[in-house]
Structures are given as C-alpha cells and as structure tokens.
Amino acid sequence: MTKPPTIRDVARLSGVSTATVSRYFSGKADAIAPRTIESVRQAAKSLGYTPSEIGRSLRLAQSRVVVMLVPDATNHFTADIAVSVESALKGIGLSMVLANTGENAAQQDRLLADAQGLRARAIVLQGAIDTPRLRELVAKQGNLIFANRRPAQGIVAPYVGIDNFQAGLAVGRYFIERGYENWVAIHGPRHYFGSTARLDGFVSGVGDASRVLQLESPYTMQAGYEHACRLLDLEPKKYSVFCANDMIAYGFYRAAMERNLRVPDDLVIFGFDDNRLNEWLAPWLTTVKVPALEFGPAIAKLIETPKPGFEDGRSIILPFELKVRQSA
Amino acid sequence: MTKPPTIRDVARLSGVSTATVSRYFSGKADAIAPRTIESVRQAAKSLGYTPSEIGRSLRLAQSRVVVMLVPDATNHFTADIAVSVESALKGIGLSMVLANTGENAAQQDRLLADAQGLRARAIVLQGAIDTPRLRELVAKQGNLIFANRRPAQGIVAPYVGIDNFQAGLAVGRYFIERGYENWVAIHGPRHYFGSTARLDGFVSGVGDASRVLQLESPYTMQAGYEHACRLLDLEPKKYSVFCANDMIAYGFYRAAMERNLRVPDDLVIFGFDDNRLNEWLAPWLTTVKVPALEFGPAIAKLIETPKPGFEDGRSIILPFELKVRQSA
DNA sequence: CTGAAAGCGCTTACAG
DNA sequence: CTGAAAGCGCTTACAG
Would you list the DSSP string of B255-316? Predict the structure, then answer.
C-alpha cells in the first residue's frame, strides 16, 4: 500500500542523477563507472525499486504489452496457442493480455479499442470477425497479427498458421482415396474466414460440393454431439464426417458410442487440430495436426522484426500433417 | 504505424482545452455544455482517438492491469479459473495479464517483479510458492490475492477458494463411511500450501496417517498414470485412491482400464476440482466440486472493495461439494 | 562518465 | 461551464 519508490528516490539515495539510474536500469551500465553502478544497485535494492513500465512506456511511446484476442478461451486448442505465445513473448520481454471476444463482433471491437488504449505493441487475433473497426485498425496501426485463421479477403496483415484450405483439401482427397461415402462436413462458424477455408478445401478435395452435407457448428463437444444425434437418429448411414476441430469430433464419437456404432466400421470420423488432449482422451482419433507450439516463436519473430514496407504480407505458414489413427 | 492522436490533437480540432477533452473521456461529461460535448465527440471520432491508458495510469498512479500468476496454464482447472477471473475483471474495466510460473520459484519471483513494474492493480496467485520476495510484496504492496490455494502460514492476504482442509477431511470421512481400505493419497507438490492442506484434511478424515500411502505428484494425467502403473503392477490390491485433482484421476483410471480393473469394484478413485471436462470425459468420476466460475466475481469484488484496515484477512471461502458418481 | 532539462499523454485542484 | 498549469515516472540528446 505504500507508494512505490521512484527513480528519483534511488537517485537521491545513491547521490547520482536520475539519468544515471535510468542508464543502469535500461542496460546501459557499460557507460557507468563501476563504483557508481554499485551504489545505484545498493540504493535500488534497499528501496525495493522496480522501474515503472508506465513511465517507461509513456516516454518511449511504446508499451511492452501484447493483446491476444480469442473467440473462446475455454477451447483447448486456443488455450494451447495462447500458452505458446505467452511463453515466447515473455522470452522477448513482453507481457500478454488475454481477452475473450465470445464470438461477438461488438465485443471484439470493444476489446480492440481497449488494446488501442493500452497502446499494445501488437494485437494477436485467433479468429477475427470482419468488422469495419478491424479493417480500420489494420490499416492505421499495422500492428495486428492473425493467428490460426487467416484474415478476410482484402485485409493485408501478417498471418501465422497453417494453410487451412490445403489442409481441408488433403482431408477431402484422403476421403476419396479411401473410397468414403456419405460425406458430412461439420464446419466452424462462417464468420471466421479460416473455417470456410477449411470447408472450401475439403469440398475441393472430394470434388463434388453437392454431395457434401454441410453443417455449421460451434467448436464444442456439445455441438458435435447434438449434430451427431440428429444425424444418426434421423437417417442412420455409414457417414464419413470431417469435423472442424477435435472437440466436435469427441462429441460426435460420444453419440456414436451411445448408439453402439463402431469406428471406423460403421462411421468414419476425422478431426482437426490434434490438441493436447488427444493423446490421453482420443488416441483413436484421426486428425489434422496443427503445430500449436510453433505459434509462439513465429509470432514473437514477427513482432520483433520491423515491418519491411507498406504492404505487410509477412505471413508464416506452418506445416500441417494428417495424423492417421483408427477413426478414419 | 502512424502515431496515435493525443488528447491535444482532439482539443485543438474541437477548439477546447485538453482539460475539457479529458473530462469528456473520464465520465465527467455532465459538467460540460452539450454543444461542447458534441464538438469533442466529433473531433475524437474523426481522429480515431482512444485515450492512452499509459498517460492515464501515470497520472493516476494506478494502472488497470491485474496480473494473474499460474503454475501451469495448460491445466484445465487453472484455465477455467483464469477465464472466470478475466471475464469478471473486464466487467469492472480491468485487463488481465496471465503468466506462467512453471512451478518454479525463481520464475515466480521474476514475474512478481514484472507485475510490480507494470504497477498492477492487483496480483492474483493461483498456487504461490513461498519465497522471501513473495512475503515482502505482500507486506509492502498489499495487493496480492491468493486463489484456490491458501497462502503459507504467516502470510496475511486475502484468499479466494474453498477450504481445502475441510474438503480433504470430507473425502477422508467418506472413505471411512464406505469402509474403503488400502488408502492412497496422490497429493500435489508440497511447495503449495493448498496441496498439503487437502492431504492433511484427508489424513485427519481417515484418522490414521500411518495407513495412508502418500505419493507426491504433479497435477497431470501423465503423473497419475505413472503412479498407477507402478502401484498396480508392484502390489495389486483394491486400492482406494484420493487424487489431488481430476487430471491425476484420469491418468489413474487409464492405467486401471489397461489392466481390466473395474471401478469401483476393483478400485476406488476419488478426484478433485470437477473440471469442465468431466461432464464429457469422465462422467463416472466421483470428485470434489470446486466452483470455478465463482472465483471471478469474488476476486473482482475483493479488488473493488478497498482494504479495511492494516490486517487484511478478507478471505472469501467458496463452498465445495462432494459429487458422488460411480468411481467411489 | 555524468547531469540538467525537456517532454511523452494524461488529470485535476484552482481560479474564473 | 471552462482553461492554464503542474506533475505523475521515466529516457535521452546535448553539453561538459
């Protein structure tokens, strides 16, 4: 509750100017006499001084905060990426503020304004909704980074993630190769560009859009379960289901188990993400592996590297991989 | 990339002083003439002005950032609490910075210093390691809040969470009531005060410490699995296992399944937390329900309410509940 | 190697 | 209802 000591307190106690104290704390100690260093160190220590990031940020017109906006922080894969990013940012001296948009455009825009208020060094969006405010910010600030889902057409900003279209395509082709029938694509919300890219890729892969049953769905087990119940009860068939993420796949599987269906004999299920839970909870799930742990380093690199020119298309495309296990 | 407009730019464009613009943005608009308000609003809008939190924080000697330190952000229950807290803080105009201590004392202390540097409004610790720096901060800043695990003896700071000792006690008594034998307590790391409180409670509940096999363990499925394998292979028995959290219980269960053991006939498993995954992944797990969603509001309330006196024991004890399902 | 001074973007007590 | 001015905690170009 006591007011924290300032640079002036340290200067006073060690008998030097604030300039010298500042140099000590901003890594310019090699231009200070050893004896001076020592007295500053001591004074700072005895006062328990930690430089104020606020003063520093104001002076440098730049903060060390990066804001990450996610549609749903309770989604495991989203959280995995967030953890990876937080850790990589810490490595370069930055803090991460995490905020939930709840898949809500107005909420996203509000948080975008907050991030602007914090003068965030960068804003990382995992699944952005295309709004005028978003576009304005991209154009004016140029410090937005899109992660995992590519931004909508016409937004020029760096993207870190896999090529969702290619991944969908690969799954579609795999379906053809294996001779699967009764295609179902449970795809993510249409307002995310990345969701539709996966879907479009898949449809291209199987080659016949009219034969793909497309179901839009939130990225949750609950939703996967409900879609499955409806489908399996209304018109039971040997479906081949491409799920927009692993959680949907878990839900679908649950419904299948309840109906005593065997996978992959009675039903084919393909997931997406290969989240950390699979190893323990769904080692049977065939899925697309997205390298969650590579997001952090890639994003950190993007933030550290200054923008080259006006056009900012410095995307980092991470590799994906089809993890073929039992379910497909 | 353009430098963001400042309060001065808005003042200039609308022909008023910065004081007036400031009043407009800090909710003192009722003391401004309607016409003035309108011109400020317009000017701000046309410039795309968002007040700088940095300038504001410096002036007010108070930031709107709350730092949350967690031992392991990939732990689901930890993440659930973090989500709840983030959402409640947003409701009162605060941002949350999340950081991982990785169960490492030095890392925790470093992050504590960072939080101090950010002049965090509050620091929330989910599982703190008892270090001199932590104690110093509690004494000097008085803005630390302990969540889910009570601070070590002698640290006077608010705590939000269940009474871990009582919860452990209730489980121990339940074991006695049901006549369970071969007690095993797989407890969390000893450097967390909350872990030992649960264990101590359990031991009190069964009433005979010498008959409890105590195994220290990280809070992971992997660790639960490994403990189980060792135990079940070395000396197979009908164990009654109290797991420090649900993840450990999942791991234990997995090992049991691999050995064709039936729960609860061949093995009794009791979890802790009742995390969000149980509903889908382990609806059979008997566990202690900790109300994750109540942490956010409780912590927000604590932050909003000014400290009463010198002694700060304003803890909020949340209710827990034994969720008896099949496994015990 | 060191210091005096200006200024980053705000808010608010004071005066009118 | 409004403005001039001081000051929050820093950093750095400049001068010595």
Answer: HHHHTT--TTTT-EEE-SB--TTHHHH-TT-BEEE--GGGHHHHHHHHHHSPP-SSS----E
